[in-house]
Design goal:
The chain is an alpha/beta fold and 327 residues long. It contains 14 helices and ten strands.
Length: 327
């Protein structure tokens, strides 16, 4: 049986957040001018977090927990892009060598950002499940510490501070909507919320073309997708981690699906009504809310990141869908 993370762990981690981590704001979102002043949804803007996504919360927590010998060795992780940026930035700030494994078709904006921090990137084939074997190979060859972010307990603990901030800023929140990939984010956020206020509803969101957690909940165990296809590249997991999945089963009320067209519509609403630039993976929470899949009441939709290419922005604002490459 999985030993779920505790409120004590969450509070201790939050108390030790470094100054680099921002307490990101929450702002109201209206679908049209008739809702202004009576908004029922607020956006938790982790696209305004340092590196443009929520991931540095866990990256700093993990690197800060390393023993001196582990810091000297350096670490290797695998990532679709946002964790790569987070560890690259945190490693640079803390003086810890970092290498990241990314798929060849990773978001070029995120690749450029990682390289901007001076971090080495090693590419693997365009298969989510190919990342871990490549990470382990690099660890052996370079003597690095491999950190499997899909299973590491510290990931969920590190990200849990988002849930704590939401409850502090909106104590009467009724529903929190969270984008889902391998499960580290939602397991941490849901743990913080449920351990402080069990009555708050926590809803996860998968894109239809990448519904690993949704399908796993149906099967009542982690399952792997044969195919992943969505513009939401930040949600590229084809299988949830075993550790976060145990938390999802215990502490998440529901996981829902959104289509590519709904993600595109949410992206445009965020730009036009809220003046917020979100990457498609960060907009799925709003897509679920817009299409009435998450329940009513006072709601917070988590915008997980804003690292999006110019091409994707122009395509979506033109009312079109970006080309979707199979993975």
């Amino acid at each position: 049986m999985t030993d779920l993370i505790t409120l004590k762990e969450i509070e201790e981690a939050r108390a030790n957040l470094p100054p680099e981590i921002r307490w990101t704001p929450m702002v109201p979102l209206s679908r049209d001018s008739g809702e202004v002043g009576a908004e029922q949804v607020h956006l938790k803007l982790e696209n305004l977090q340092v590196t443009g996504a929520y991931k540095p919360r866990a990256a700093f927590y993990i690197l800060g927990s390393l023993a001196p010998e582990e810091r000297a060795r350096g670490i290797v992780i695998s990532s679709s892009g946002n964790f790569a940026q987070a560890f690259a930035y945190a490693g640079k700030r803390l003086g810890i060598p970092v290498v990241v494994v990314m798929m060849e078709n990773a978001n070029p904006y995120k690749i450029e950002a990682v390289r901007g921090y001076g971090t080495e990137i090693i590419f693997c084939e365009n298969d989510y499940l190919a990342r871990k074997p490549m990470m382990e190979k690099v660890a052996r060859e370079q003597g690095l510490l491999a950190i499997n972010t899909a299973e590491d307990r510290r990931v969920s603990i590190g990200h849990s501070s988002i849930g704590m901030e939401i409850l502090d800023d909106m104590p009467d929140v009724e529903t929190v909507i969270v984008p889902c990939s391998s499960g580290g984010l939602i397991s941490g956020v849901a743990s913080a919320i449920k351990l402080r206020n069990p009555s708050v509803r926590v809803v996860g969101v998968n894109p239809e073309g990448g519904a690993a957690i949704y399908r796993s909940l149906q099967a009542k165990e982690p399952v792997s997708l044969d195919r992943w296809e969505s513009m939401a590249d930040g949600l590229s997991a084809t299988r949830p981690g075993d550790f976060p999945f145990a938390h999802i089963q215990e502490r998440v009320d529901d996981v829902v699906l959104v289509s590519e067209e709904e993600i595109a519509e949410a992206f445009r609403l965020l730009v036009k009504r809220a003046k917020i630039l979100a990457e498609p993976a960060g907009a799925v929470s709003v897509a679920a809310w817009m299409n009435d899949r998450t329940g009513g009441g006072r709601t917070v939709a988590l915008i997980t990141g804003g690292n999006v290419t110019d091409e994707t922005v122009s395509t979506l604002l033109a009312g079109k869908l970006p080309a979707l490459g199979p993975r």
